Structures are given as C-alpha cells and as structure tokens.
Amino acid sequence: MLSRRELLLLVGGAAAGGVGARVLGFPRSEPTPVMTDDFAASHGPYGHAVEPPRMLGPGSLDAATVPPPRVAGPIARTITVAQRPVEVAAGQTLDAWTFDGSIPGPVLRVTAGERLALTVRNRTTHPHNLHTHGAHDPAADGWEPIPPGGEHTYQLDPSPAGLYPYHCDLMPSTQHIGRGLYGALLVDPPAARPAAVERVLILGGFDLDGDGRSELFGWNGIAGYFARHPLKVPVGALVRLHVINLVPDEPVATFHIHAQTFDVFRSGTRHTPDAHTDVVPLTLGERAILEMRFPVAGRYMFHPHQPRMAERGAMGWIAAVDA
Ligand SMILES: [Cu+2]
Questions:
Q1: Which of 57, 118, 223, 292 is least surrounded by Cβ atoms within 10 Å, i.e. has the fewest?
Q2: Which among 216, 263, 272 has a CA at the least distance from the CA of 243?
Q3: CB–CB of 303/316 below 8 Å?
Q4: How far is the CA of 146 from the centre of ligand 1 (A)?
Q5: What spacing in Å lies between the alpha carbon of 83 and ligand 1's midpoint?
C-alpha cells in the first residue's frame, strides 16, 4: 500500500507533468454547496458536500493523524520546505507550500525540557521559517526568514507540557499558513499522561482562487476526508484528541461532536480539565486536548459548528468499533 506521501507525490507529479499546477476554481461568489434531493439520494441523509481525492483511502492520513510514540530523551529532526501542488479535495488542487511534502507537516513529539534540534531546509524560491508556539529560547523562536536554498537549526527545549502549533511565521500569514506551512508539536509531561488512543486533528482552510478567503476546509489537509473515511476508535477506550485551529482567514472555529461530551484541557498545559462540553471554540493558533470515551458502538459526527466550514469539507465521523 502506498504511503500518504507517495500518494501525494503521485498526485503532484501527475499535475506537474500533465496539466500543470492548475488551481481549480471554487470562487467565493459561488453559493455554499447545497444538499439537493439528488445529492441526498446518492450520499444518503448524512452525506457530505465535498469529496476527498479518490486516490486516498482508509489510513492515507495516518502520518498526520496518528502521533509518533512518546520519546523520553532528546530529538533531532530535519524538515524540508517544498512547493508542490496538493489535491486537497477531489479535483481541487492547491499550489501548496509544505513541510516535508504534505499538509500538515509531520507531527513533532518531545518530552518537556528535552532538546528538540530542528533543522529546516528551505527548498523553495520564497523565504520561509518555522516558528513554534510555547516557551523556548527566543533565539530559536523562528521568526527570522530562511532564504531560498538556506537552512537553519533551531535548538529548542520546549515547555511547558502541552499541545502547540508550529507554522511559517512570514507575512502574509494568510498565504504562508493558508498554503499549508503548519503542523503540531506535542510536548509530553515527564510523567506520561494516562494511556489513550491518541489522534491529531488540525483544521485548515484552502484558498483555491487566491482571493484571500478559504473556499474549502479540512482536517489534516484534506477536505471531506473524515466524512468518507471515519476515524476509527475502539468502543470504551480513552480517546485523546489533539485539536488545533489553523484556518487563517476566519476569526474562530469550533470543534463539536455529536452524541458525546468531552473533557477540555486548553492548550494541554494543565492536568485537570478546564471544561466539560461538546463544543469548544478555538481562535487561530488556539488548540485543546479533548478526552472522551465512546461506550456505544456507532458513528459520531464531528465538525466545526460554523456551517460554512462544515458544509465545505470539515464534516467528519468518528466510528466507535468493537475491538
Ligand atoms: Cu512561509
């Protein structure tokens, strides 16, 4: 089976060698996709308006969704910034800037207080950088541009334990974040959190026509993906979702789940829940660790409670299945 990156390279290669990096229109003047009778007939009453790329199947987004295991010691990573077309929905291609070839970039994971040596190579024709949220040496903050062809190693000792975004921090952010330069940094507490099924969900927006406003939205880089390919978790297990909002052009998004409620750990920096609810608001760059269990097998819908986002690709399902 092809990895997600291989799939994306195939998609990108086909676009580059064939029709070129076409940005297909979904202009903002177009109405939000409407669920017509025909649509409902072909998709069922819980259908979704945006289809993911047909080459993607179950597991294709695991690299962005399933975090790497916790590591107790120091970490060294190299990330390459690359420009390439990415099919973010069926037939919809974004002329993307990527960390390591995909949107979002790789999930980084380190234990609080341990060294994260992060080398970033810029293989594009634009300046970029990699800025991490959280506390660290200001000299490694990542706001300075890395020129085309250049590279820089950030020496980070991330703290406190929590969930942080990383992203390119150059202006205009609507482009540098909107075209895909973002990812998740998990900073574990020295004493591990309780064992759980952990998943990362980063909400992004896709401005396909370059008008500064996202026309499509998606979790982990692909619109419509989790509606077609539900996130599967075992019935009864503790599920820990690391949820980040990186939609650059909307003031706020929410994470909402149907048929269940969850504990909210805002930014994941404290060990007691800040709230227990079913809708959590997240401004740009804001994030939360959400913990829940699904005692009954079935499909639990999740989406931002902003209809425009849910209808344009950010609706999905968690499927609780018997282990
Ligand atoms: Cu950038």
A1: 57
A2: 263
A3: yes
A4: 9
A5: 10
Give the integer Cα–Cα distance in Å for 74 and 80. 20
275 Cα–ligand 1 center, Å:
35
Cα(263)–Cα(256) distance, integer angstroms: 12
Q: If you average pLDDT over residues 186-210, what whole number do you get?
A: 96
In order of their start, the domains of the chain are 62-188 (2.60.40.420)
In the reported structure, the alpha carbon of residue 21 is separated from the centroid of ligand 1 by a whole-number distance in angstroms of 19
pLDDT computed for residue 13 by the predictor: 37
Cα 183 to ligand 1 centroid, rounded to whole Å: 13
CA distance 134 to 186: 11
CA pair distance 260, 255, nearest whole angstrom: 12
The secondary structure element, H or E, covering residue 202 is strand 197-206
Grade residue 318 by pLDDT with cuts at 50, 70 and 90: very high
Return the pLDDT at 21: 33
CA of 172 to the centre of ligand 1 (A): 8
Name the residue with tokens 């921090």.
Answer: 169
> Is the alpha carbon torsion for 207, 210, 212, 215 positive or negative?
negative
Please give the Cα distance from 214 to 24 (Å, whole number): 13
